[in-house]
Amino acid sequence: MTRILHIDSSARPGRSDQKQHGSHSRRLSAKFIEHWLAKRPETEIIYRDVGANPPSPVTGDWVHAAFTKPEDREEWMRRTLRESDQLVDELLAADIIVAGVPMYNFGMPSQMKAWVDNIVRVGRTFGFDRTRGDIPYWPMVTGNKSIVALSSRGDHGYGPDGRIAHLNFVEGGLFTPLQYIGITDQFGAAIEYDEFADERTEASIHAAEQEVIGIVDQLLAKHRDVKVA
């Protein structure tokens, strides 16, 4: 059975198609799940709302605990890493990660960055060994996992080859660390013109929703080993 890890990180509650001033990124991630479940209703969905319930940020104690061998960890270290362990377990159990990630000041929300920092874990999602010489790191996440980043932006032109693409640190900020740990199958769609609140916004919403449907169809083919009920 396919498992999808569905993450929302917007500080705005609710979806923009259901609530005034609701979140566009939540709208897109919900659209993905709805379209997927219409085709594969038996899929297991793991939902985590880091926008409403942010993971704890990485601290000095966290780093100390993470870089201590599991067999040498004291009880306080295990407690410190408990939340991170749960987040990593959810990631490793998933075949597809669908993340609603709005643009805040050119990058991802701090809540989403906290999630990234908690799942990039030495010994769990990447390896480290000084005896390997100049390249002591290697990815540890295996399997046919896919990441889908669904974003929203106030301005326009942040996409590839866009007029201000160089100011977009959302997709790169998410895709780069996930590629580093071994998740290289990457997709994205975004709503733009949010601050314009006119026909361009509506056109961008429609285009992004159609793009999401297209991504779902691509991933249904990639994960076609799952039988449709």
From TrEMBL:
Q: Which co-factors does it depend on?
A: FMN
E.C. no: 1.6.5.-, 1.7.1.17
Q: In its keyword annotation, does this UniProt entry include Cell wall biogenesis/degradation?
A: no
Q: How is the cofactor bound?
A: Binds 1 FMN per subunit.
Please give the residue ranges the record annotates as the region Disordered: 1-27
Gene3D superfamilies in UniProt: 3.40.50.360
Q: Which UniProt keywords apply?
A: Flavoprotein, FMN, NAD, Oxidoreductase
The UniProt entry, under Pfam families, shows: Flavodoxin_2
- Kindly list the positions annotated as binding FMN: S10, S23, H24, S25, M103, Y104, N105, F106
Q: Which residues form the Flavodoxin-like fold domain?
A: 3-210
Which reaction does this enzyme catalyse, per its entry?
Answer: N,N-dimethyl-1,4-phenylenediamine + anthranilate + 2 NAD(+) = 2-(4-dimethylaminophenyl)diazenylbenzoate + 2 NADH + 2 H(+); 2 a quinone + NADH + H(+) = 2 a 1,4-benzosemiquinone + NAD(+)
For the protein in the UniProt heading, the enzyme class is oxidoreductase
For molecular function, the Gene Ontology terms on record are: electron transfer activity; FMN binding; oxidoreductase activity, acting on NAD(P)H as acceptor; oxidoreductase activity, acting on NAD(P)H, quinone or similar compound as acceptor
| Segments passing through the bilayer | none
Sequence similarity: Belongs to the azoreductase type 1 family.
* Subunit details: Homodimer.
| The protein's role, per its UniProt record | Also exhibits azoreductase activity. Catalyzes the reductive cleavage of the azo bond in aromatic azo compounds to the corresponding amines.
Q: What is this protein called?
A: FMN dependent NADH:quinone oxidoreductase
